[in-house]
Amino acid sequence: MSDFRPLRRLQLVGVFFFALFLLPSILSAQVTTGAMSGVVTSTEGETLVGATVTAVHEPSQTQYGGVVREGGGFNISNMRVGGPYTVTVQILGYRDGEERDIYTATGPARRPT
């Protein structure tokens, strides 16, 4: 019985330190990345399924990409927050489209209205 008490005390100390130091950081985890979403259409209004969307974070030259899915929508997640970004859309048979000075915020992508 005397060998059991030090082991039990060590377990309690371990649980205490876990609760004191690690648990708060796990519970207060925050989103620190941004995202982008949108709909890609031609000038005639047809969706460009399969088009490649590339977003370049201009200050770091980090590139992020996505593909336009059925319905014309795309999503790019886990992006650096802020910007500016240059977003390029490419698909065979069409001239490339480009938008500059796009900025992201923390959290999930919000579709423009």
Structure description:
This protein is an alpha+beta fold. Helices cover about 20% and strands about 35% of the residues. The chain has one helix spanning about 5-25; strands at about 35-40, 50-55, 60-65, 75-80, 80-90, 95-105. The strands form two sheets. The chain has a four-stranded antiparallel β-sheet, with no helix packed on it.
Key phrases:
1 helix; two-stranded antiparallel sheet; elongated; alpha+beta; 4-stranded antiparallel β-sheet; 37% strand; 113 residues
What is this structure, in a nutshell?
With 113 residues, the protein is of the alpha+beta class.
Beta-strand proportion: 35-45%
* Widest sheet: strand ordering: 3-2-5-6
Order of helices and strands: HEEEEEE
**Number of beta-strand segments:** 6
Q: Mean pLDDT, rounded to whole units? A: 81
Figure out the total of helices.
1
What spatial form do the alpha-carbon principal axes imply?
elongated
Helix proportion: 10-25%
SS-derived structural category: alpha+beta
**Terminal Cα separation, in Å?**
70 Å
Rg, rounded, reads 24 Å
Topology at a glance:
Elements: H1 4-27, E1 34-39, E2 52-57, E3 62-67, E4 73-79, E5 82-90, E6 97-104
Antiparallel strand pairs: 1-4, 2-3, 2-5, 5-6
